[in-house]
Amino acid sequence: MRFGRVSFKTRMGTEKVVALLERSDPSLLKPCDSTEMQETGEGKVMTSYLMDCRRKQKLMCQQLCVLGDMLKLLAGIKPAEQFLNEPCPPNPGSEARAAWKALKAEYQQQVQEVEALILTLEENMSELHNKRQRLEALLVALETKKVECKEKESAAAKQKQKAEIQLSLQLEDSLQTAQNALRVCDKRLTELKGEVEEQLAHVADWTLYRDRLHDMLEVTQNNMQYRLLSVSPSELCLELLPCSTQQSLQPLRLSVTLTTDDLFHLKVFQGTAGLLEESVEGPVRQLSAALLEVMQHYISQGEMLAEIQALHSRFAIDWCPAKRLLIFLKSATTVCHLELDEGYPSAGRARLVCVRKDSNLLDLATLQPPVVNPVLTDWLEFLSSNPDL
Length: 389
What we know:
Layout: H1 2-23, H2 34-39, H3 43-75, H4 80-85, H5 94-223, E1 226-231, E2 235-240, E3 252-258, E4 263-268, E5 279-283, H6 287-300, H7 302-311, E6 317-320, E7 325-329, E8 334-340, E9 350-357, E10 360-361, H8 376-385
Antiparallel strand pairs: 1-2, 2-3, 3-4, 4-5, 6-7, 7-8, 8-9, 9-10
Helix pairs in contact: 1-3
């Protein structure tokens, strides 16, 4: 049984040694290129790591040599059947057995260390391989980006050159157009200068002619008895100026409308003049006669109308020429009515018709100015100063 156990252990040890030799074959280790490691920035780390690996490999080679000798020794050992037939050898000494166990324990410990180093090396190599693949992918992407940037720069340069050429052509066209326009403007300016000089030559004559016309217009307006206010294609607005009377009469405003049938329509505006508003129609050739008739009618009542016009600025009065009635508003509650006879003031009188105070008629017997045959001014001054009204 002891020999069988030894034979089994021997075979197991042989298999482990062979497997360890296969795993520790230096040909299976992929050499690392120091140049590539330095390019990746990990040269210093890998140098120390490789030196440590080299030291361990030397140690492993020494151990492998010992294992080789042991295998040769084991190969010369007799088979197990022979050991069964032979008598048992004497027990070895306790010192040799303890040395052998210590050597075995050291061997197993070193085998575990080597296996751990091999696993660490494989992991590091796998990690380096992945980093190399990532670096290669980044280099490919960088080259692609570089090519794309060059293509874009080339396209942009071509586009810029094309735009510059097109802009240059446009500028040349614009410059040519501007030069043509400038020549046309210069030609037109020369023509205008000639026209201006020609017109300036006539300015003095036109100025003299304008001054003469202005003087004639002033003389004509001073001699005429009307003043033109506005003119339109079909209507004239003017004022009659009664300059030949001694009374200070206000201008009489009227309008003349002309029709396509050579007829006129003359309308008198009462305003503050006090003349009855009336209309006159007739052919255009009788317009001067109509104006003269209106002027004579206005002047014939000049003394009465001049007095009424003067009283407008002193009293609150309202003149009704159709009824020859003058309404005097003394206050908000007192209203006086006065009537003027025909031919007033030379052939007629001014009479008080009624006085209404607070909607009640007052007795006129007590209302009489202190003068004989009072005129319209006397009546208004008396009524405005009477304390009973």
